[in-house]
Amino acid sequence: MEVTFCRILHTRVLNIVGFESELKQWVVAKIIATEPEFKCENMSWQALSGDAGFRNYFRVQHNRCKLLAVFSPPETENNLAFLTIAEFLLGQCVRVPKIVAHDIDKGLFLIEDLGETLYLDHLDAESVDVMYGEALLELIQIQLSPPHQEVFPLYDRENLLVEMDLFPQWFVGTMLGHELTSDERTMLDNCFEVLVVSAEEQTQVLVHRDYHSRNIVYGQNGVPGIIDFQDAVIGPFTYDVASLLRDCYIEWPQEDVEKWLFAYGNMAADAGVMPSVSQECLLRWFDLMGLQRHIKVLGIFARLSLRDGKHGYLNDLPLVVKYVRSVSGRYEELKPFSSWFEGVLVPLIDQQSWSSRFKNSRVKSS
Fold it and tell me: 7-38 pLDDT, tens per residue?
């Protein structure tokens, strides 16, 4: 499997220039089809930084029209899911990009450009309350969408466990070089079971699955744009709110996180997304769901660096480690995991070059 992936990656790198040329020709043809007077010299073409996948983005502007051209390699990306989910969310009045043109087989898309400013670029102490309020309202709009199983897969026990197993494989084993004993594997299994049971207790809704400050476009009209939604599933209602408020790329004080969480809980209960529960119950669900996500993310970020050569994600590992240490230490049933993480993994983490890169300036205050 890894050999196959590496071969795909190698081919992808070799052919990227050719794909860009093909994409550009395709975009020009699509524009000419609707605007016969169009001239290529009037079009600007700007390459944008990519994401954790293998999609390539280009900002296209002609006259007053702004679009994004996307090459999404069909050998690694689920393009049919992207198209299907985009059309579904648009039908639910969620602010996602409109699809202007597409060629599923070749992985070519021309989509609406929702803007150049991501939430991460605009969040600060003055803007955060309003911006998170808008993002939480849009999240509730997503969660009110009918969870059609013919469109969205279930984020079930098996998938949750498979995700968390990236942690011992890629973070503990490959990155830190620690081989688990049988007792440690049992301890991890017990920890994972606590997190899965908590997820299963919750109302199951439509889950974006990566709802954070790099996947939300700042909208000056008050409606945030939502991107990178092609992995949406039906799962626990706290998953996306944990992704947003315990963001892997920006940190906020605990009192602020709880304030926003409880405001969301009230709105979600009023909207019928979830039953009305105590703040203690909501915070527990939120904490354990966030811990499941961050355990998974430690494995994913390690894999992105070690397998895919995307070393920028190493800069984000210390904050994720901080979240894991903080949350796991709060719950009695997670104490074995917390003690092991502190005693065995933290000394190994401290030896990593990326462990010293975390800056306190990333901690924001509202």
Answer: 444 444 434 556 788 898 898 888 877 776 66
Is residue 58 a contact partner of residue 69, using CB atoms and an 8 Å limit? yes
Burial classification of residue 49, based on how many CB atoms lie within 10 Å of its CB (0-12 exposed, 13-18 middle, 19 or more buried):
exposed
Q: In whole angstroms, what is the distance from residue 349 CA to residue 65 CA?
A: 48
Task: Summarize pLDDT for 94-152 with one digit per residue, the tens.
Answer: 999 999 999 999 999 999 999 889 999 999 999 999 999 999 999 999 999 998 888 99
Give the contacts of 324 (CB within 8 A, at least 6 positions apart): 291, 294, 295, 298, 341
Count CA atoms within 13 Å of residue 362 on its CB side: 17
Buried b (16+ CB within 10 A) or exposed e, 19-40: bbeebbebbbebbeeeeeeeee
Residue 220 has pLDDT above 50, yes or no: yes
Output the pTM of the full model.
0.89
- Residues paired with 64 in a beta bridge: none
